[in-house]
């Protein structure tokens, strides 16, 4: 059991003596299903939030602080010190990823390794950025030394589905650019920050990173209300992002770095290579049980290949292995959110009432806190499963005759992150791609949607994102161009 009592403010690992919240694992260690107690976290509120904010403001010190003015080489040294210590915690963090969010062993290992790689790549990119900014430019007799400067204080909130990787994809570039930060881990995947607290404390000057625990509303809202935060960095849902943004009295000045909902479609054309398409759509819809912003959340299949696709897809989904994260070959694992199976059931019931059918034999079967992915067909636009971001194991399928149908739906959608397009004929694909890139930010050809490799831009149109996250882009998202100019006289 991890009873997390410490939190980091102003370089001090303070001892928490107030109320705590128990943290449970979705994984049952008994015959009869019962969530497993993993430990507890502090239930913090406004006083701690304000202390953390004061510490971050003091460390930034209106741009005069040690950290924002520190030489690039020294900032990198701090970051390297941190990541080296983090590497020694791999086994502990991977284990916590499995227990806290039910992510499979290979995916938990991948999340850890990807995060370490992300930090090293960010350091390299930061060095390059610094080398480029060292050059002077001259235009019309005016010399300029252009560089990128920090924004100020960043409030950083990560998601439960990538509690390490995506949180750090915000925090690390924000920090290395010279900002100071207040960071609160997600509700699930919170204990895995415990093994890193000392590394945070001893790698960075005091107040640069402040770590709080508790409910988002209790901790983040009072910070926003002060109006003293310069950037809101959040991966999660737009409801939380909007609520927090609106708390800020000068929200028009706030830099937003947001990764939000998506409803990425798969579009299957008549000449698609069927086995490859099925493999990719299965992975895209069910990887981490569909709890990924990049998951395929709606499937459009052309009428010509509809029957073949539905039959083989349904069989493939039923053939997946359910189990605990450490089981060999496991693909489906328990859901960390206790209310998720009931929500998925609501979506299924609504679709069934409006005329859809579950086409896979195991679809919708419940066990413990899990519900087997239900493939629903034919789905129509009045169904909740079409309208809402399900973020879980239910797969709506629509068939189409004319490609304009899915294109129109995408144009009308509130989201615009990615699409997967399956087909072979280059003369059909080429003009289609030209349209799709204007509707979303990444077109995946004959492959499912994904964020990585992390050097590629990760963003979205409409309600799906604000700013761009990738090794390269995040450094720009957390900074602003500033320069010194002088005349040739
Ligand atoms: O949940 C959203 C993540 O950005 C998805 O990342 O495509 O690497 O699983 P991924």
UniProtKB/TrEMBL annotation:
Keywords: Oxidoreductase
Source organism superkingdom: Bacteria
Molecular function GO terms recorded: oxidoreductase activity, acting on the aldehyde or oxo group of donors, NAD or NADP as acceptor
Domain Aldehyde dehydrogenase: 26-479
Pfam families assigned: Aldedh (PF00171)
Family stated for the protein in its record: Belongs to the aldehyde dehydrogenase family.
Protein name: NADP-dependent glyceraldehyde-3-phosphate dehydrogenase
């Amino acid at each position: 059991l991890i009873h997390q009592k410490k939190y980091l403010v102003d370089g001090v690992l303070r001892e928490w003596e107030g109320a705590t919240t128990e943290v449970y694992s979705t994984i049952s260690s008994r015959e009869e299903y019962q969530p497993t107690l993993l430990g507890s976290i502090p239930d913090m509120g406004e006083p701690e939030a304000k202390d953390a904010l004061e510490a971050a403001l003091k460390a930034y010190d209106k741009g005069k602080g040690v950290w924002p003015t520190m030489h690039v080489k020294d900032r990198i040294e701090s970051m390297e010190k941190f990541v080296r210590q983090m590497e020694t915690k791999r086994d502990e963090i991977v284990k916590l990823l499995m227990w806290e969010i039910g992510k499979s062993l290979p995916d938990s290992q991948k999340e850890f390794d990807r995060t370490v790689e992300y930090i090293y790549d960010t350091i390299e990119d930061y060095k390059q950025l610094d080398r480029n900014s060292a050059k002077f430019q001259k235009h019309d007799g005016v010399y300029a030394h252009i560089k990128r400067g920090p924004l100020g204080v960043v409030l950083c909130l990560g998601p439960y589905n990538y509690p390490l990787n995506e949180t750090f994809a915000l925090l690390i570039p924000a920090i290395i650019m010279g900002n100071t930060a207040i960071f609160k881990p997600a509700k699930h995947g919170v204990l895995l920050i415990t093994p890193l607290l000392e590394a945070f404390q001893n790698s960075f000057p005091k107040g640069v990173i402040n770590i709080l625990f508790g409910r988002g509303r209790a901790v983040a809202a009072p910070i926003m209300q002060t109006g003293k935060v310069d950037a809101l960095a959040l991966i999660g849902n737009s409801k939380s992002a909007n609520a927090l943004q609106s708390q800020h009295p000068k929200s028009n000045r706030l830099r937003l770095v947001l990764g939000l909902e998506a409803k990425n479609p798969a579009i299957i054309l008549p000449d698609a290579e069927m086995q490859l398409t099925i493999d990719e759509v299965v992975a895209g819809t069910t990887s981490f049980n569909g709890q990924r912003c990049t998951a395929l959340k709606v499937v459009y299949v052309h009428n010509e290949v509809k029957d073949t696709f539905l039959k083989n897809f349904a069989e493939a989904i039923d053939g997946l292995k359910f189990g605990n994260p450490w089981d060999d070959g496991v693909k489906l694992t328990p859901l960390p959110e206790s209310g998720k199976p009931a929500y998925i059931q609501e979506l299924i019931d609504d679709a069934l009432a409006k005329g859809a059918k579950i086409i896979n034999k195991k679809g919708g079967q419940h066990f413990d806190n899990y519900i087997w992915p239900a493939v629903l067909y034919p789905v129509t636009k009045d169904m909740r499963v079409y309208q809402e971001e399900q973020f879980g194991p239910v797969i709506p399928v629509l068939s189409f005759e004319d490609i304009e149908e899915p294109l129109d739906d995408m144009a009308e959608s509130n989201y615009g992150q990615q699409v997967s397009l399956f087909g072979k004929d280059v003369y059909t694909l080429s003009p289609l791609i030209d349209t799709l890139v204007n509707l979303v930010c990444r077109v995946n050809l004959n492959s499912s949607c994904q964020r990585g490799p992390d050097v590629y831009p990760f963003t979205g149109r409409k309600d799906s994102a604000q700013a761009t996250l990738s090794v390269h882009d995040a450094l720009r998202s957390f900074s602003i161009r500033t320069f010194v100019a002088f005349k040739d006289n």
